[in-house]
Amino acid sequence: MNIYLESVNLDEIRNTAAAGLADGVAFTDTASGGDALDANTRERLEEISREFAFPICVPVGAVTSGDIYAEARELAKVSDHIVVQIPLVEDSLVPMARLTAEGVVVCATFVFSAAQAIIAAKAGAAAVRITLDELENYGQSGTRTLAEIKSALEAGEEECDVMAASPRSALEFAECALAGADIVCITPQALRNLVVHPLSDRGIDKFLSQLARRPKSRSST
What we know:
It contains ten helices and eight strands.
């Protein structure tokens, strides 16, 4: 399972990559300022793509066919590492298929069911992004839906990765892995929280206490 960091901060990306925990980067509307094509975002995309040889997922800021295609093409020009995130709506199916045929890697967003995932895959999407909290807020189990989507894609022999977005806890992160997620997108803070556990603090305190009681070795004269 790959981890994509939800961040546009170079220091956060560098630190996470140095620990071997970043397999890619996923821009969010919040992180990118809500506009995938503004000058600041384009500059940051270029910086990340120069420094790291892994996928960079970026959402388009359009919902009509012509605008989706045009903006996706512009994003793809920035780097070969760009994965264009396109909302799954009726108008996006033709540009998805066209972009895929032209070699642009597409990830379909706003996917909330196995049926939608299959349609996206048939249209050429290399991945589908499942936003867990939106499903949970709607009363649907995010990880159960994730597992259903993964099973449906495998049964249909569709080559399409399942991307789980923003697990909120260590338990939900583990459930994403058990559900078969190919990619999990996670914020730096949530990733740090995966490392710690209440028992870890107790273990460290016990370890330090034991060290303090050890007799100090005498240096030879």
